[in-house]
Amino acid sequence: MKQDEQGKVQPRAGYAQEKAQNPRYKFLNALMETGSIRQAALVSGKPRQHWVKLRERDARFSAAWDQALESYVEVLEAEADRRALNGEEEAIFYGGKQIGSRCKTSDSLLMFRLKALRPSRYKDSPQDGGAVRVEVKSFLDMTVSEKNETDTDGGHA
Fold first, then answer.
1. pLDDT digits (tens, 9 = 90+) for 37-59
2. pLDDT in tens, 117-148
3. Burial, 44: exposed, middle or buried (Cβ in 10 Å; 0-12, 13-18, 19+)?
4. Which pLDDT belongs to residue 123?
5. Partner of 84 for a Cys bridge, out of 24, 109, 143, 146, CB 3.0 to 4.6 A?
6. Alpha carbon 153 to chain centroid distance?
7. In the chain, % of residues over pLDDT 70
8. Do 63 and 55 meet the contact criterion of CB atoms below 8 Å apart?
9. pTM, rounded to two decimals
C-alpha cells in the first residue's frame, strides 16, 4: 500500500475509475441524486429487483441505501427552504408580452418546513385533522340574538 507524507493510505492508480464503473456505486450514486429506485437501477444496468433483494440480504448495502435516500431528502429540504424563503422568478405577461417578473415565495412550503422542524409549535390540531372549525350554530345564534335586540329597541343600539 502506498502512503502519503502524513501516513495516510492512498488508493491505487485507477481506483476511482473502477469505483465509478461498479454497478453498486452507480446505483447508490444515482439513488442519492434522483431518489428513484427505478432510475438508479436503470443507471446501474441491473434490474430493480436485483437491488431490492440485495438490500434484504446485505446490511451494509441496506445502510448505504438508507443514507443515499437521506442525502436525497436533504437536497429536497434545501430546495424547499430556498423556494419558501427566496422564491422563484415568475414572468408577468400583459397583452401576450412579458412586461416584467416578480419573485414568488411559497407560504405553504414555509409552513411544511415549520411543521417538520417545530411540530410542537406548528402541528395541526388532532381533534379536527388540522381543519379550521367554525361553530356555525353559535355564530347564527349570536347573529339572531343581536338582530332581536335591535328589533326590540327600535333599531337603536
1. 999 999 999 999 999 999 999 99
2. 899 988 876 655 555 454 555 545 554 555 55
3. buried
4. 81
5. 109
6. 59
7. 67
8. no
9. 0.60
Amino acid letter for position 64: A
In three state form, how does the secondary structure of the chain look? CEECCCCCEECCCCHHHHHHHCHHHHHHHHHHHHCCHHHHHHHHCCCHHHHHHHHHHCHHHHHHHHHHHHHHHHHHHHHHHHHHHCCEEEEEEECCEEEEEEEECCHHHHHHHHHHHCHHHHCCCCCCCCCCCCCHHHHHHHHHHHHHHHHHCCCCC
The dihedral sign for the CA sequence 139, 145, 151, 155: negative
**Grid coordinates given for 145:** 340574538
Cα-only R_g, the chain: 29
For 17-46, what is the mean pLDDT?
90
Q: How far apart are CA 43 and CA 134, in angstroms?
A: 52
Burial class (CB in 10 A: 0-12, 13-18, 19+), 102: exposed
Please, which pLDDT band fits residue 91 given cuts at 50, 70 and 90? very high
